[in-house]
Amino acid sequence: MTTQQTLVLLKPDAVKRQLIGQILSRFEQKGLKIINLRWFRFTQELARQHYAEHIGKPFYSGLEEYVMSGAAVAVILEGPEAVAVVRRLIGPTNGVEASPGTIRGDFSLSNQQNLVHASDSSASAEREIKIFFPAV
């Protein structure tokens, strides 16, 4: 198995609902290691850099407003096949459709306010880690 690093963002709804510990513990219980972690707030520039592929889509302005609405947490996780493992743990984007036992299935009822973002590939993880942890 290939050891990988991936990025997870705990979005403002996860922070406001005080779910940080519960969410991070699921990753740790699975065997993933927290390599780096930082609190931050999205600026418009950071939101546009991270969500560049969505700019111009009908939902983008609401997404930008949402991610800028409060504090967030960026986490680098590491472990065997970390990208795929994290994606399975968080579940599908829409919390209503996510299976119980996944983070979104257990804690989210929304397509947009869905608690977490996770890199969808090794290439995305590499790009996104550089955005949120430029010194790493």
Number of helices: 7
- Mean pLDDT comes to 95
End-to-end separation in angstroms reads 23 Å
Strand order of the biggest β-sheet: 2-3-1-4
Strand content: 15-25%
Proportion of residues in helical segments: 40-55%
Order of helices and strands: EHHEHHEHHEH
Rough outline: globular
| Radius of gyration computed on alpha carbons | 14 Å
Describe the protein.
There is one protein chain. The chain has 136 residues and is of the alpha+beta class. The protein has seven helices and four strands. A four-stranded antiparallel sheet has the order 2-3-1-4, with helices on both faces. The two termini are 23 Å apart.
Task: Explain the layout of strands and helices.
Elements: E1 3-10, H1 12-16, H2 20-30, E2 33-41, H3 44-50, H4 60-67, E3 71-80, H5 82-90, H6 103-107, E4 116-118, H7 122-132
Antiparallel strand pairs: 1-3, 1-4, 2-3
Descriptors for this entry?
globular; 7 helices; alpha+beta; single chain
Summarize the structure.
The chain is α+β, with helices and mostly antiparallel strands and 136 residues long. 41% of the residues lie in helices and 22% in strands.
